[in-house]
Amino acid sequence: MYIITCSPINKGPVREGLSYFSKDRIPEGSLVKVPLRGKNISAIVLEVKTLEEEKYALKGASFSLKKINSKSAFFFYFTEIIATAKETANFFYTGIGAVLSNYTPEFVSQNGHGIKIMNRPVNKIGKTNHELLAFQATEEERLLEYKGLIREYFAKGQSVLICFPTVEDLERFRVELTRGIEKYSFVFKGIKTKKELSLVWTSAIKEKHSVLLLGTPQILTIPRKDIGLIIVEKELSRFYKTLKRPFTDARFFAENLAKNYKIPCILSDTSLRIETTFRIEAGEINRISASKMRVTSTAVSSLIDMKKISTNKTSKESGAFEIISKELKQIIEKSQINNERVFLFAIRRGLSPITLCNDCKTIVKCDICESPVILHESKIEPYFLCHHCGKKRPAKETCSSCGSWDLRAFGIGVERIVENLEYNFPNIPRTLISKDTFSTSKAITLGVEKFMKNGGILIGTEVVLPYLHKKIEHSAIISLDSLFALPDFKIHERIFSIIQYIRERSKLTFTLQTRQNDSLVLQSAIRGDYNNFYRYELQNRKDYKLPPFETLIKFSVEGKKEEVIKNVDSVIKNPIINDLEVFPVFAPAKNGKVILTAILRRPKDKNREKELFSYIQTLPPFIKIEVSPESTI
Fold this sequence. Notes:
Blueprint: E1 2-8, E2 18-22, E3 30-36, E4 39-50, H1 51-59, E5 66-67, E6 74-75, H2 79-92, H3 96-102, H4 106-111, E7 132-136, H5 139-155, E8 159-163, H6 167-178, E9 185-188, H7 194-206, E10 212-215, E11 227-233, H8 250-261, E12 265-269, H9 274-281, E13 286-287, E14 300-305, H10 313-318, H11 326-337, E15 342-346, E16 354-357, E17 374-376, E18 383-385, E19 392-394, E20 407-410, H12 414-424, E21 430-433, H13 441-454, E22 457-460, E23 472-479, H14 491-504, E24 506-514, H15 520-527, H16 530-543, E25 552-559, H17 561-572, E26 581-582, E27 587-588, E28 594-601, H18 606-618, E29 623-627
Parallel strand pairs: 2-5, 7-12, 7-13, 8-10, 8-11, 9-10, 11-12, 14-24, 15-22, 15-23, 21-22, 23-24
Antiparallel strand pairs: 1-2, 1-4, 3-4, 3-6, 16-20, 17-18, 18-19, 25-28, 25-29, 26-28, 27-28
Helix pairs in contact: 2-3, 2-8, 14-15, 15-16
């Protein structure tokens, strides 16, 4: 008789160390069905002991053990994967099974009996120990480097795993990386059914030759012992962090998995995270020799100060301002003559992100959640749309505070740009891509393909960026100044990254319009000077005790305002987190609810951290806890 300790593979509250008994020995790392609250759920076997070893502990137990049917068990997770899951769970204050639920396809964890694990010997020729590397270069340079590495590791008889944050990011690399080795390439994207995914997954495991594995973070637990290299592509992307419980980071998991496999891991992007570069300087990470501190581009880059753009008398009296500079208009005119394409980017959807009363200066807000509403255009009449809760209403209204009809729209949205282009360039075809106009990935792909084929002007928000696989002759950022107003410690990094992404995809010209031309972030970005930006940003973070100098833990409570205040008060009273910093502003949420956020800096004392972990496990599920959050808002 054996006592089996398991961890449920689910995304719910942490339930570690569930004990059952079995007449047969079940190997550690096996997936098994266990009874819990009237249901049979999937769990991973963490520990196996004989009844003799546990008999004294069981004598004093106030509960009886339930039986596991050993026929439901099948071996899946290597010891290296379990060790990585434990490290990830400890860092992010969650459970081992919860971590694995993020990085294991559902069809495997729920019913993977048809999967046969090939525990093949690893070719030791040229085998290296674990090394953490960083590679900062353009997308084209990274692609060339990856091709060389794949050939090198295939020659050693080892497989290569490349992890991408999103399917769209994967698609940009897929064709070039798999060319010539299609037979040994397994791409986990665009798979519609569990049966099809099971076939690809099983084929990737059974293939005796070295393979190339491309996919999003769920491929990290694929059981192949011959993986010799893990690459984390676009390591700056915030999409490596899970958006729902359990809140973990695939970059952390990948890095520690490589350490446990004793193989190299490469963190790669056009612009690396501030935290990654800091670790390079500390000697924790080594640079690949081809890395660069300056992001290059074939395009001529220009920074346009929109504060100096003169407006006519009528515009000044009405409070209007120029949307497209004279320099950019000239580029668009020449592009029409030369049959060249133009991409115009803005950070905001709609016509204008802010509408306020010109008399009392009251901002027009949502009736439900009190967020500032966005002015949109339609064929019938303009309307206000709340981008937080989705509430829509006609824009023909008076000020809620003073009753004035004099409501003014401020800021630049993509619809405002289209409106301007219709007036200035009526004969040039226009394509607008935002969440309001294209709701699916397939639709955006088709929209971009049509633009690339037919030319004209593409106007888009961030949603279109991952779909720009090829260079565009002329690109311009019409407006992203509003991002500087967000109280988020990573906002400068996001701004710099957006600029580099668009600049890298510009072939002839890149134009950045701004009313903050004296910003060091923008000045560094227009030159591709990552080093200058890094020094500036690192000093800011040091001054305010932010990552990489401190690890942040974010607590979030959502609900009605009165309930939120009550719940936060009950949490703050505990002396374990007496230095919790509560943001004094309620963020709007859906259905009239609000979100209150608080930040705690992770204790550096090990004993205090254990106390904190124990306390966090007692908190109710309506309190969200995120370690190393991508945003503090």
